[in-house]
Design goal:
Number of domains: 1
Structural class: mainly beta
CATH superfamily: Jelly Rolls
Order of helices and strands: EEEEEEEEEEHHEE
Number of helices: 2
CATH class: Mainly Beta
Distance between the termini: 48 Å
Strand content: 35-45%
CATH topology: Jelly Rolls
Helix content: 10-25%
Strand order of the largest sheet: 1-2-3-10-5-8
Length: 165
């Protein structure tokens, strides 16, 4: 029988990454899973837009909304307002972005397979702390290091939201 330990992350544990007002609590960086899965909890302030529209060449993401509302933006202006308990899967090559349209903070549990994308958030924190401008171009440049490419943001401008009310 294999003798490999399980990993336990208590409620207030995990590496904390701050990217401006967004807080990321890394719960699994891939070191316990041979880089097969990474996991983090994000807190996004009210009314905040997320990253520029993008798609991933090499990893899938999942989002479990735990508080507030997270609006997912997809091509042709399609949006889904996901609320606490809702689950969103973003497969490889699916253009997307997200925002918090609400007046309260939003929280979600996010997974990445494989886990290497966790390092994107660490890079973003370093860029923010160094005083680099956090605009569309610098964020997309950071994403490009992690097999993530820009999507046409104009085609993703929001239309009326679908989903949970």
């Amino acid at each position: 029988m294999p003798d490999r330990p399980i990993s336990f992350v208590p409620t207030r544990a995990g590496e904390i990454i701050r990217i401006g007002p967004v807080v990321c609590r890394i719960m699994e960086d891939g070191s316990n899973t041979d880089n097969r899965i990474g996991a983090a909890e994000f807190t996004v302030p009210p009314g905040m837009d997320g990253p520029p529209a993008h798609w991933h060449e090499m990893h899938d993401e999942t989002f479990l909304i735990t508080a507030g509302t997270v609006r997912f933006h997809a091509p042709e202006g399609k949006t889904v307002d996901a609320q606490a308990g809702d689950y969103v899967v973003v497969p490889t090559r699916a253009p997307h972005t997200f925002s918090n349209p609400g007046d309260v903070e939003a929280r979600f549990f996010n997974t990445f397979t494989p886990a290497y994308y966790i390092n994107y958030f660490k890079l973003m924190e370093k860029m923010f702390k160094s005083g680099m401008p956090m605009n569309k171009d610098t964020v997309q440049q950071a994403m490009s290091h992690f097999a993530t490419l820009p999507a046409d943001g104009e085609k993703m401008k929001a239309k009326p939201a679908e989903g949970a009310n």
